[in-house]
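Deliverable D4.2, example record:
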Amino acid sequence: MRGNPLRHFPGTGTAAASFFVFLYAPVVVLIGLSFNSGRSSTLWEGFTFDWYGVVLDNPDILRAAKNSLIVGVIATVIATVFATIAAIGLDRARFRGMNAVNSVIALPLIVPEIVTAVATLIFFLSIGLKLGLGTVILAHVVFCIPFAYLPIKARLEGMPATFREAAADLYANEWQVFRRITLPLLWPGVIAGAMLAFITSLDDFVISYFVAGPGASTLPIYIFASLRMGVTPEVNAISSLMLVVSILFVSISAWIGRRSR
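Output generated by the structure prediction step:
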């Protein structure tokens, strides 16, 4: 393999290029059509920024965006706190069921989202919880914990134990070691995990659609409802804005992860 790497295999370059075109060409087309001056979603009639102004002046869109931000911020803070506590607790723990606990924490990443959404809805209805913004936040907290947990856990595993041992040799207690050694070194992982959790919450549709009550529509739910009347440049503009925000947060999270190394 050293003398004949994979990129030299016949057809590998063509297959890779085709894959990226198939994956990203629709996104490029969507962004381009968001600047279409006409109402057609397929026929280009001219260039304009008007649809972004329409989006920012639409009270329904602003209300949905506000709900998405409220859910995203609250769910991210709570999920990141729980993920940090779990990562720190499991980092020093050594017991027989440790791998099983890690698997349970990462389970929402494996279980199909539709299954999680239906199970969460049934649980809320069985305990008599009224559907609304609160149920969306609770569902997002559970769903976002693994996304916040994995970067924090990876950061902890990369921290040398000698730092804590040196602090203990200098008579630092557990709280001082955590506040002055562990937390400053862990902070980049916490920020990266929080950003991943936030963008996951912001983009989620399936779980939000099932557990949201009246007046609790988020941006993905609003976009889905708008698509029932056809794709318009307004929908393209909303999707483009969400795409830009998602790329921004993921890029910052990746940059923080590289800097932390």
